[in-house]
Amino acid sequence: MIYDVENIVVGAGVIGLAIARAFAKLGQETLLLEKNGYFGEETSSRNSEVIHAGIYYPKNSLKAQFCVTGKELLYAFCAEHHIPHQRVGKLIVATSPDEVGILDQIKDKAANNGVTDIKQISASAAKEMEPALHCKAALLSPSTGIIDTHQYMLSLLGDFEELGGQLALNASFDSAHILEGGFKIKSGGTQIICKRLINAGGLWAQSVAHSIDGLSGDHIPHRYLAKGSYFTMSRPSPFKTLIYPVPNTASLGVHVTLDMGGQIRFGPDQEWIDDINYDVNLDRSDQFYDAIRRYYPDLEADVLHPAYAGIRPKIQSPNGPQKDFLISTEKTHGISGLINLFGMESPGLTGSLAIANYVTSNV
Ligand SMILES: Cc1cc2nc3c(=O)[nH]c(=O)nc-3n(C[C@H](O)[C@H](O)[C@H](O)COP(=O)(O)OP(=O)(O)OC[C@H]3O[C@@H](n4cnc5c(N)ncnc54)[C@H](O)[C@@H]3O)c2cc1C
Description:
Blueprint: E1 2-10, H1 14-25, E2 30-33, E3 50-51, H2 62-81, E4 85-86, E5 90-94, H3 97-112, E6 119-122, H4 123-129, E7 137-141, E8 145-147, H5 149-162, E9 166-168, E10 175-179, E11 182-187, E12 190-199, H6 205-210, E13 212-213, E14 224-233, E15 242-245, E16 255-258, E17 264-267, E18 271-273, H7 285-293, E19 304-314, E20 326-328, H8 330-333, E21 338-342, H9 352-362
Parallel strand pairs: 1-2, 1-12, 2-9, 5-15, 10-13, 12-21
Antiparallel strand pairs: 3-8, 4-8, 5-7, 6-7, 10-11, 11-12, 14-17, 14-18, 14-19, 16-17, 20-21
Helix pairs in contact: 1-5, 1-9, 2-9
The protein binds flavin-adenine dinucleotide.
């Protein structure tokens, strides 16, 4: 038997869930295919759970646009759906005199992205906020927050199903053939015809795209994997605010995040890997101690424990320039009704509702 549906979304991570819900809100019959036995088990449950303000991204990039608009949409969604979240704020700390000048550049970059609530504060003002903190100066971002990502995904799914959408678990997207005005999809032994096909496969988006018969490999970027490990501490958190060092070119640096239960996490670092595995490499803890003690000198020895790791689905090589999200539509690949989302790393959680609006308006 061949089923028929308007839209198929591949991947029930936070982005696939947000897209599926957005289609359902438009009254379009939508099926969400997830290969795992549960939604959101991959990158969407292995991140910092931070609602980013939109500070660091290049002006006019998709990352900047989706972060800034997505943040407002997400705070509104959280309030409306009673999702646990908190605007805890974030301090970006300069720990040496030469880093102080970089704070100005970060503030200007934020302003270029429309983030105008950032202010520079002195070392003593920062210390008054966070007595355990060492710094020379800091930037305070009051609109940065934290969110219970699982509850958020659960709520997206609840909305989607209430609007008539269907999530199929243990349902791997295997292949697609392009038809006149749509696609024929194979998932296990099932065949489904749909008009629109959205690939939100996260770390597997490239392999999903390669299984679409007729899509040229020229439109599928190479996938690189950058693991980010987290350590936790067997002590109560000395911080109430998120603490970030001045970022380097590779990542935002080993920062302090807090979950909704107040548990502290340090991380993520960045380690280029060849295959997907989520083990936290204990050898990396020395680098964590060094990085954290720059802003938290009282960190005692032997208090860090491995927590978990996530993997960034990068589309840039280890030494290549930073790349933006790549949301590939008919305009680039020429196939009507198909959108592939590649390189959906941070701030994909913050931007998820804005990304969903973009996808439903551009397919
Ligand atoms: C270490 C780390 C920290 C981060 N911190 C933050 C943060 O603080 N704030 C922020 O905004 N963002 C953050 N991010 C980014 C954010 O987590 C991601 O952008 C977001 O989770 C991506 O969601 P997704 O739905 O694209 O991917 P995923 O969550 O990976 O979901 C993809 C889904 O597709 C499914 N799938 C794949 N192939 C198939 C197939 N063939 N058939 C069916 N299903 C398939 C997978 O099983 C998976 O469930 C972080 C990311 C990392 C790695």
